[in-house]
UniProtKB/TrEMBL annotation:
Domain of life of the organism encoding this protein: Eukaryota
Species: Lentinula detonsa
Chain positions covered by the region annotation Disordered: 1-203, 212-231
Source organism phylogeny: Eukaryota, Fungi, Dikarya, Basidiomycota, Agaricomycotina
Composition skew (Basic and acidic residues), residue ranges: 1-84, 92-109, 221-231
Protein name per its UniProtKB record: Uncharacterized protein
Amino acid sequence: MERIEAEEKAAQEAEEKRPAEEQRIKEEKRQEEEKRVAEERRIAEEQKKKQEELAEKKRNKERRTAEERRRADEVAAQAEDARESSTAYAKLMEENRVERERAATELEKRQKRIPSVTVVILPRSSGSKKKLFKSKSVISDESSEEEKELTPAPRGEKRKRPIKMIAKGGSYSDPDDDFEPEKDGSNPLPPSNNSSQNRPACSRLASFAINNANDVVGPETTHRNVREGSG
């Protein structure tokens, strides 16, 4: 009897404790579920963070690659510009060198074609001092047409254009002159309004110099209108 009462009492106590136990079990399950959800959320956040870090690293790598490519392109462009500038400078220097050589060659040719003519004027009297005049005329066979026109005609032929002769005391030329020298090479001067006695000594000396210049430079370089040249 006592055993039966003890069993009933124990069953009654168990019945009384069941709701509390069930509540405790439910609470434990709820806490475990919350822990599981929090852990899953934490893992998801960590994975998301890792993905973001990977994406950032990828973007940084792409950015660095683009920057390196841009710098490489700039360096290549600068090298190309420097090469073109160097080529252009070398070409310009070569053209200048060729031009200087051509000018030097042309100058040397011209200098070789410039004869030095010495005209000796003998005095009328033995007491006078002889005077020495030098003149230079440029005769070019390979130059312009204007220089070719200045070339004196052969002896005995009419010249196309008179040559200007520069001497001490002045110069002379007459484009309209149709003067032809004598066949024997002499060059008589036409009569003048002023006789040799009325002209000054320097004028008579100039006329005498022109007449005697035929022996040195030929009759082509003399002129009939310079007998009044200044001394």
